């Protein structure tokens, strides 16, 4: 019997780990433990409840105005002392590029425990954008024993960096989670919960919370959203579930004052995927949504200067607009006004997977860990 630890801290990590936890838990040769650091406490708990994930370790590390230095040091110490020294693990799974991923990988490496990195090989090739995620994932690559890449392009990134062993292209587990989640959504209840939204209009869903968009970039994004709201005041509703980070929340409520801009509470995962499905298109700086939306046939305008998910841009499912006010307005207008343009993007094939990534990961780990 091999003992595996899944360790994560944010909602996106939990979503992408959920189908893996489900499959490994159903496999009799493995004992599964789940540990969370709770970088995103409330939003993380929503996903755990939705996917019915029981946690064995809850470090609950976040405190107000915590620095990256302090968070990283705390995570390494707490993961080691409160989890890794409590049980003997054969493998630790980490996902993506958060501070939890780097700290967990380093702590596991110090204990000589093998590390499996889900969503390996993503690169923007700019160490400061996104910050600190690009550094986190690059360093995690150096520490990991197994590299599960969502795309062939991600694999090529690793090969160019000199990684030669245990690289597997599986697709992204976020698609697995999306397909699982859609089946669990209670549409009737959600329509009642969001009865103030006029779904007869075209819905533009907005998510914006990344560190690089704080300050002036966020103000430029808000200026674009207000302009779009004014231009299409009779035909469009903009829905923005506002992230609780004070750098975002206060500015959003100050700058986004229009009747057809609805500032919503942070959405649960079930609410988010349902809202994505109801939308016309999505404006986002999120990585996960860039991967999910194409499976629902939704065009994406990516509000980042660079993206490590270049496959979507190449496949035509996403358009990079950054925090450029005019570019956001122009690209949104094109999607709203030009049906042919919209359909060409909506019909593009999702380059991030077919919903079977988790099965491929389980197969690889069985081959390596089981006698």
Can you characterise this structure?
It is built from 16 helices and 13 strands. With 371 residues, the chain is an alpha/beta fold. The chain has two domains: 2-172 and 354-369, Glycogen Phosphorylase B (Rossmann fold, 3-Layer(aba) Sandwich); 188-346, Glycogen Phosphorylase B (Rossmann fold). The radius of gyration is 20 Å and the shape is globular. The N and C termini lie close together (10 Å).
Task: Describe the secondary structure blueprint for this structure.
Blueprint: E1 2-8, H1 11-25, E2 30-36, H2 41-50, E3 57-58, H3 68-84, E4 91-95, H4 99-110, E5 114-118, H5 133-143, E6 146-149, H6 152-160, E7 167-169, H7 173-184, H8 187-193, E8 202-207, H9 216-231, E9 236-241, H10 246-255, E10 261-264, H11 269-278, E11 281-284, H12 287-292, E12 300-302, H13 310-315, E13 318-320, H14 325-337, H15 339-346, H16 357-369
Parallel strand pairs: 1-2, 1-4, 2-3, 4-5, 5-6, 6-7, 8-9, 8-11, 9-10, 11-12, 12-13
Helix pairs in contact: 1-2, 1-7, 1-16, 3-4, 4-5, 7-11, 9-10, 9-14
EC number: 5.1.3.14
Domain UDP-N-acetylglucosamine 2-epimerase: 26-366
Enzyme class: isomerase
